[in-house]
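Changelog entry

Holo records now carry the ligand SMILES as an explicit input line rather than a separate metadata file. Below, a converted record for adenosine-5'-triphosphate, shown in the new format.
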Amino acid sequence: MSPVPQAPAQTLGVLVETPQHSGLSGPLDYGCDRPIAPGTLLRVPLGRREVLGIAWTAPRPAEAPAAEGWALRPVAAVFDRLPPLPATWCALIDFAARYYQRGAGELALAVLPAELRKLDATQLDRRLRRLDRAASAAPPAAHPAPERPALTPEQAAVLDALGLERIGQAGAEPPVSLLDGVTGSGKTEVYLRAAETVLAGGRQVLMLVPEINLTPQLEARVAARFPARRILSLHSGLSPALRLRHWLQVLRGEVDLLLGTRMAIFAPLDRLGLLVVDEEHDPSYKQQDGARYSARDLAVLRGRLERAAVLLASATPSLESWHNARPQAEGGAGRYQRLAMPSRIGGGVLPRVRLLDLGQLRREDHAAGLIAPALVEALQQRLARGEQSLVLLNRRGYAPVLHCAACGWKSGCPHCSAWRVFHKSDRSLRCHHCGAAERVPRHCPECGNADLDALGRGTERLADELAERLPGARIGRIDADSTRAAGSLEAQLAQVHAGDIDVLVGTQMVAKGHDFRRITLVAAVQPDAALFSSDFRAPERLFSLLMQAAGRAGREASQSGQSEMWVQTWHPTHPLYQALVRHDAAAFAEAQWRERFEAGLPPATHLALLRAEARTQEAAQAWLAAAAALGAAAAAETGVSCFPPVPSPVQRVAQVERAQMLIEAPRRAPLQQMLAAWLPQLHGLREPRVLRWAIDVDPLAI
Ligand SMILES: Nc1ncnc2c1ncn2[C@@H]1O[C@H](COP(=O)(O)OP(=O)(O)OP(=O)(O)O)[C@@H](O)[C@H]1O
Ligand SMILES: [Zn+2]
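Structure line, unchanged by the conversion:
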C-alpha cells in the first residue's frame, strides 16, 4: 500500500459501484502519478466518501482540464500488495455487464466480497499478513494415494471425449460438453477424474453446485480424493470474514480446486482448466436480484475466455442446454457436445414409478389426510424392513392459510398479495414474501370465533400426520425452517445417513444431489399444481424435480430392485407423469422442445423482462407503457416485440405494486442491440411514483 501523491500525471479509468438508476455505466476518471495495471484494486474518492474501485483502463496522459476549476481527483490508495484481478476476469465482467445490461461498475463491485469494500489499507494488510503466515506454514504431509473406483466404460468414454488434452490450445480449445447422466450414474466420479487430470497439468478447477446444502457432501468427497490439494469453497453460507479470506486466497493463487454456488463463477482464478456445472438445469444458477446473471451460461463464456474445458451435467438437462447440444441437422443449435451415461452404477435400476390416482380414493380417505392409505401401507412395509423413505412436499410451514369458517376471514398478508403461512412450531403467521410475522391469533380477528381452520398442508403438518399414522417411526423434516441455525442442516443430513431417521419429510431441498444410500421409497404427495401454472417452464421444473427425487431411491444397487417412487395425482394420464413412469427424460425434453418451438418460446426465441415497482399498479404499468413507446422505433428496426404491461405474478410485496413487460426477439443479437439502444433512454423517463425498475435478460420465471 502506498499513498498516491498529488499532481496526477496520468488519467486512469476506475470502476466504482454505480447503481443502474444512476445512469452511469462506464469507468470514472481519476488521476495517478504512476502506471497502475488494469484489474488493480484501489480506493478512490466518490462524492464525499471514499470507496473501493478497480483500475479498468490503462493510464493515459492526463488531459488539460476541460473547464476552469475542474480537476481530476487523485486515486486515494492502491492495494498493491494484492495481485491485480486477472485479465480474463475483467473480460468476463465486461461481457456480462453488456449482456445483462448493467453497468460494469455495478456488476464488478457487486460480485466482490462485501467485506472487501469496508477495508482500508491497514485492515487489508493485517489480513494479508495472516494469509502469508498460513501460506508459509508447513506444506501438507505426504498422503497415501486415495482409493478410486475403476471407471465404468461409460465414465471412461465421457472422460475421453472432454478434450482435456486440448486445454489452453488457441484455436483448438476443448468443446463445451453437456453430460446427460441418469441419477446415480457416477457423474461425480467423472468430475473427480477430470479434475485429477487438470490439476496434474498445473491448472485449476472450478466446480459449481446449485445449492449450499450440496456443498458439504461434495467438499468431503473432493477433500478425500485430493488430500494434498488446496481446496476452498465460496458460497453465501460462509461468514463474511471467511468469504473474504477464501476470495483473497483465490486472488493470490492459493487454491487448486474451488467449489461453490453461483457466486463462485466470478472467483478471480487465473489458471482455470476446467469448469464443472453440476445439476446444470437448476434454477438457482440464476441470480434473482441485482445483476440477474446465469452462472451456468457465464461458465460457458468463461470457459471460452480461458480456453478451459466446460462440463455441464444433469439427469434432466435444461431445454436451453438440450437445444444447444442438439445437432443442427435435427434443428438444434449444435453448439455443445452431447454426452450420455444412461446406466446406474453397479447395474442398479431406477425405481419403479407408481401413480396413485387420487380420483379413485373414497371421501373418507381424502378426509383422513394428505397421504392415501395405500401409500401409508407402503411406508409401513419399508419401516418393517428397516429401510428409509423420503416424502416430498414443496411447501414449508404447517398450513398455507388460516381460515375462519364463521365469517370467511383468511390470513392474508396486509402488505402483500399473498397469504400468511401458519407455522405451528413457533405458533406464528408468517408471510414468505415480506417476512412479516405475528403470533397466531387465538380468535378470528374479524368475528372473534375461537375455531380457526388450517387450510391445506405444509411440511410441518405432513410430518405430524406421518407420526400419527406410522406409530414408532422416527420422522425427520428438512426444509428452510428446520435448517436455519448454522450447522443444523449438516446435523440433520448426518442423521439420515446414519440411519437414525426412518421417514424424511422435505421440500425440494432434499430432492436433489444427495447420495442417500438407504432410501428405497420416495413419494411426491402433492405435485399437481405445477401442471397448470401459467409459467411455461413449470412442467420442465416439475419433471426434473420428480426425476431428481426418484433418483434418491435405490442408490444401493442391491436394493434398487425393490425401490419405488410414488406420485399422488388427480391426473395420472398426463404425459408428464407418463414420461416419468418410463424414466424417459429424452422423450419429455423432445416433446417440450417441440411445444416451445410451436409456441415461439425459449429456446426458440429470446426474452427479456422489464419490471417496474411503484406505489400503485396503475403507475407501474403506465411507466412500462411509456418505456415501450420510447423503444418503439428501436424495436421496429430490430424486429423485437414488446408485449403489453401486466401485473407481476405476486403483484404486491411489502406495500409495493409490481408490474412487468415481456420483450421477445427471434434471435439474441437483435435483442441485445435493441436493449442497448433503449435502456439508457429510460433513465430520463421521470415518473415520481415509480420506485425502481430493472431489466432481466433471459428471465427464468415469467
Ligand atoms: N466407477 C465406479 N465404480 C463403483 N462405484 C462408483 C463408480 N462411480 C461412482 N460410484 C459410486 O456410485 C454412487 C453414485 O455416484 P454419484 O453420486 O457420482 O452419482 P451421480 O451421477 O452424481 O448421481 P446424482 O445425479 O443422483 O447426484 C456413489 O456412491 C459413487 O461413489
Ligand atoms: Zn407480506
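Spot-checked after migration. The chain has 20 helices and 30 strands. Residues 413, 415-416, 418, 431, 433-434, 436 surround zinc ion (ligand 2) (CB under 6 Å).
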